[in-house]
Amino acid sequence: MVEQVAKSEESRVVIEVWSxxxxxxxxxxxxxxxAAIAQRPDPDRFEIVMRSFExxxxxxxxxxxxxxxxxxxxxxxxxxxLRAERQVQAxxxxxxxxxxxxxxxxxxxxxxxxxxxAAGQGHGDEFFSRVQDGFFTGxxxxxxxxxxxxxxxxxxxxxxxxxxxxxxxxxADRVRIDxxxxxxxxxxxxxxxxxxxxxAAPGAQKVSTYGQMLEQAAGPVLSERAS
Amino acid sequence: xxxxxxxxxxxxxLASGWCDPDSGVCHIETVDETTIADAGSEH
Lengths: 227, 43
Prior knowledge:
heterodimer
């Protein structure tokens, strides 16, 4: 007979991830977090809740290449920027993630507003992750309302509702409140992962670190033993 | 790792990489990943 030692039916654990689309470490960090969850035998206990953290509230609504946007905002040269991008690309690829250098940068405020709607429908993580994956693999223009509506529909959301949200300013306050909440909780780096409102870590941590955090918040990895 | 803030304990320092909440600049600055990427980069 096999006895389940730990408490597999225990309460669910909410993992909040403050993230922005344009943040490469949010892309990498989220995949690492999900890898840590997948390594546990009780992955269904964990619910990821995406929280908005708009890194540049002053960003232009007109998309431009990531290097142009960076140099305009922070200075430096295209060569310096692309060298750093290639370093992140190497890390992403070493972890099995595609990482396109051919990305566009613009305000992510509207995306966050739609993400808030998706979260309210129980599809926040799924929606945001699909947009994020599409953006970093170079297969999705997240600044195209039709593309966002298409992703929304693919996760079971109402595409027309998304088009309506994009045409007005719904959820704007929620986006700003999320950012303020993250800062208040101690976000010194994005992504900012908070597990069960008990433990937190800024930046993209290693899979093993996320595993330790899960254990600290949710208890040790379940094991089975013969009895 | 740090004193709990608002009931939350920050259990890890900035690691592999992160984006600065204030400036929006993203950084790579960890020992672990200097084998792949040079330390001290930012973009």
